Amino acid sequence: MRYTPLNKNRDFTRTYARGKSYVHPHLVLYVAKNRVGHTRVGLTATKKVGGAVQRNRARRVLRAALAEHLPADIGGYDIILVARGATPHLKSTQVSRSLAALLRRAGLPDKAAEGAPC
């Protein structure tokens, strides 16, 4: 499932400034309510993560974890996922567990947890 991209610099700046951050050793999650009415997602990996290959892998792993955990109909949020230095060296299941923990802390619904048997 593709989400509306968060690609304007002013939207990133607003989310960083007004949003709430949740930190994990593998990634950082920023969440802010928006007035658009639908969820917009931005993925970032700075040069601290590594070269182009490592940054692309980090974004690809984050995108896969996001598709696994974030439902499409959660309302109007701006969500930014920031890769950290260890992200490109992790298995996708580790990043997925990290994202699930951050979504729990942020109070956002988790699509994978809803489908899990009790």
Describe the structure.
The chain has 118 residues and is α/β, with parallel strands linked by helices. It has a single domain (4-106), classed as 2-Layer Sandwich (Ribosomal Protein S5, domain 2). 41% of the residues lie in helices and 21% in strands. It has 4 helices and 5 strands, in the order βαβββαβαα. Strands 1-4-5-3-2 form a 5-stranded mixed sheet, sandwiched between helices. Helix 2 (52-69) crosses helix 3. The longest helix has 18 residues, at 52-69. The mean pLDDT is 89.
DSSP summary: helix tally: 4
Number of E strands: 5
Order of helices and strands: EHEEEHEHH
- Helix vs. strand class: alpha/beta
- Helical residue percent? 40-55%
CATH-assigned fold name: Ribosomal Protein S5, domain 2
Mean pLDDT: 89
The domain tally reads 1
The CATH first-level class comes to Alpha Beta
* Strand proportion: 15-25%
First-to-last CA distance? 25 Å
Which regions contain 5 or more consecutive residues with pLDDT less than 50? Answer: none
Secondary structure elements and pairings:
Elements: E1 4-5, H1 9-18, E2 20-23, E3 27-33, E4 40-44, H2 52-69, E5 77-83, H3 92-106, H4 111-115
Parallel strand pairs: 1-4, 4-5
Antiparallel strand pairs: 2-3, 3-5
Helix pairs in contact: 2-3
